[in-house]
Amino acid sequence: MNNRSFSSRLSWRIIGIVSAIFFASFIIIGLVFQYVISNETASAAPLVLTLSLLLVGIVGLVIVYFVCRREIRRMTRPITELSVSALNMAKGNFKAKLPEISSKDEMLRLRDSFIFLQNSISDYIGQLKTTKSDNERMESELNVARTIQMGMLSTNFPPQLHAMLKPAKEVGGDLYDFIRKGDVLHFAVGDVSGKGVPASLVMSITRAMLHFVATLDLPLNESVSRINNSVADSNSNDMFVTLFIGRINLKTLQMDYCNAGHNPPVLILPDGKPQFLPVKSNLAAGFLEQFPYEDEHIDLVPGTRLIAYTDGVTEAENKSLELYGEDRLMEDIAQLKADMDEKTVVDHIYQSVKAFTEGHPQSDDITIMSIKV
Q1: Residue 325's CB: how many other CB atoms inside 10 A?
Q2: Would you tell me how many other CB atoms lie within 10 Å of the CB of residue 204?
Q3: SS3 assignment, position 346
Q4: Strand order, beta sheet including 296-299
């Protein structure tokens, strides 16, 4: 690879061309005078003239060389300086000094292109810094929101109940709740459509309403109707909440429940056989105000376990995009032992889902609640 500068190589090329012209001219002159000398007998003037011309040509050639070299260096100096500036920019100095160019030609346009490139890169870096700062601030705010949301969930579990919630994002739309008043246990599991901040806001409204209606001791269909009307009235984004709400009398073991478009819980009888709890097809809360919800009743027997969950469990995906599904859920629940405590039950189901997904990113919030009477 030739390491000589561009100006040096250009100079030598021009000098070579000029030299070739000079030497060709002198060879022709020399041949002409040689012919004259061969036909003249006594005169040495042509020879002297030839030598003089050769001497003048050599001197002229030297002068042309230095003049051309100086002019070429002057003309190519901006290219050299621009190459140095480009090297500095490649090293991260995007404010590298550019040469001053007075000529209005291609060199000026090239220098202006470098100025445009510098300004564009500087603006882009500024935008990146602003975006990074905004993202860091948003991430911090979301972490605070997650802390607040998770802090709203009840964690002082009674012996016969345990629940967990794993949001797919920083904040989520799943919820669970329970309130014990004397011998009556109120509980609920819900899932707001969508994920993220909007879902978390609707989740907060729903949970506040759950606490409110639990204090009124209303029939559960009326409780869900009030929640439905509240969500529908404040719902400007067409979001809805699937909800299962129940109330167990811990003395008589009668359970009242109302399902609003939610996955039916799994009932595990004392003999260990799991089955889905029969539920009526009510509309999810938030779709239509004044919807006539219907509640239901069932008498439980001692040792019965109820497992409520959201569709983040059954719709969890593995790397092949295969769903966990209800059948696999039933198989895992059938492996539970009657003497397991409720935290172990919840952990067992969650670990089964996690093992099935094989590290595939969680696509939806996951909530699991287990109650044993």
Answers
A1: 14
A2: 17
A3: helix
A4: 174-181, 184-192, 241-249, 254-260, 296-299
Q: What is the pLDDT of residues 325-373, one digit of tens each?
A: 999 999 999 999 988 999 999 999 999 999 999 888 888 889 999 999 8
Whether 350 contacts 174, CB under 8 Å: no
H-run or E-run covering 164? strand 161-166
Annotated domain spans of the chain: 6-90, 100-152, 157-372
Residue with tokens 């041949």: 31
Q: What is the pLDDT of residues 4-41, one digit of tens each?
A: 554 555 556 666 666 666 666 666 666 655 565 566 54
Cα 163 to Cα 157: distance, rounded to the nearest angstrom: 8
Contact 364, 311 (CB under 8 A): yes
pTM above 0.70, yes or no: no
Domain 157-372: homologous superfamily in CATH: PPM-type phosphatase domain (3.60.40.10)
Query: Dihedral of CA 146/149/152/153: which sign?
Result: negative
Which residues, listed in sequence order, are joined to residue 211 by a DSSP beta bridge?
none
